[in-house]
Amino acid sequence: MARAGQTESERCSENSGTGSCPPVATRQHKGNGKSNGSRGTSLIEPARVTTDFAALPDGTFLELVRPKNSAWNELKFLTWNAGTSSIVDWFEHDGRLLVPPRLDERLHRNLNLQLPAGVGDSFNARFLFVWICNFIREFVGLPEASICLTAAFVLSTWFVDKLSFAPYLCICGPQGSGKTTLLRVLHWLCRRSVLMAGPIAPAICSLPALLRPTLLFDELRFCGTDKAQTFECWLRAGNSPGFPVAMGGQLVDGFGAKVLCSRQPVVDTALASRALHISMVPTNDKPPLWGAEEILDLAAMFQSWLLTFRLLHYREFEPRSFHVPFTPRMRSVAGALLLPFTEDQETVVESFKRARPRCSPGEAERA
């Protein structure tokens, strides 16, 4: 019988050399959430369920990871319970065989999906917030309020599935202002981040339902075509869960955190009212001269820290209402940013007040 944590080859060899992995018939497990250790009385075929995350009743979490030096499409589960973790290919619970999503060779081959390789050191929200602020300062020159909001956005992406309103970050600036550099920093830090530029393929719009990623769009241009208008509609609906958009004859769920980067401000008032806005100006500052391997090692460390923070606090963090002098929609954004902060919220609140939304309260209300 297959055991949690087995490698692909070990599991295949135990299934009579047939190569059927995971097995199509296993003993039923009586709700203990493990792939071994129970003694069912009959062989059944467990219901196969694809999931990107699970918080099970016994306290176990299943989180997507990609072990170091793995292939681009080799997604596995990290199982975590009370600080104990392991990496497995699948997980059986209550008669269901939970498996990670499969990435399509044709659609996702060049997808630069950022995933942690495992858990890391444990730090509180204040340490991570200050550390992320300092790291952003190393690469781009931004007003202090914008740095604080960007750092709070990063932390919020690790809990977006706890929110009823997903935050958007709009970055606007001319060539040479450091927009793409900031996007790369966000790609290293945000949960399941995917960085892309140019025209958006319809397959990208299906990613939120598959992986719940943080989508980072560079050089966005809204040209007024039917395709662009459909994409804008998908973006407007993507702040709230349960509002799919008809695209290409299918209903596509776009809920999730996003970063929209362009040379011109967002002109769609309804879309603008859903986002925080960061304005950048040309600069002669040069980012640190770090090697590619050093950057990859740093990104892996960041991801492991932030994954550990998510797993430690996922069950305790719940959305709260905050009173800031903006529209109801912008108060929802503030609630999303403040979710990871059980204390020391004043810095983020003050930054939010100083970095006013680009659209006026009246425009936002009408949107």
Strand-helix topology:
Layout: H1 8-14, E1 26-27, E2 43-44, E3 47-50, E4 53-55, E5 61-65, E6 76-81, E7 84-88, E8 91-93, E9 96-99, H2 105-108, H3 125-139, H4 144-157, E10 168-172, H5 179-189, E11 193-197, H6 207-211, E12 214-218, H7 226-237, E13 245-247, E14 250-252, E15 258-262, H8 269-272, E16 275-279, H9 292-313, H10 328-338, H11 346-354, H12 361-366
Parallel strand pairs: 3-9, 10-15, 10-16, 11-12, 12-15
Antiparallel strand pairs: 1-2, 4-5, 5-6, 6-7, 8-9, 13-14
Helix pairs in contact: 3-4, 3-5, 4-11
How would you describe this protein?
- The chain has 367 residues and is of the alpha/beta class.
- The protein folds into 2 domains: 8-102, no CATH class; 125-352, P-loop containing nucleotide triphosphate hydrolases (Rossmann fold, 3-Layer(aba) Sandwich).
- It has helices at 8-14, 105-108, 125-139, 144-157, 179-189, 207-211, 226-237, 269-272, 292-313, 328-338, 346-354, 361-366, and strands at 26-27, 43-44, 47-50, 53-55, 61-65, 76-81, 84-88, 91-93, 96-99, 168-172, 193-197, 214-218, 245-247, 250-252, 258-262, 275-279.
- The strands form 5 sheets. It has a 5-stranded parallel β-sheet with strand order 11-12-15-10-16, with helices on one face. A 4-stranded antiparallel β-sheet has the order 4-5-6-7, with no helix packed on it.
- α3 (125-139) crosses α4.
- It is globular.
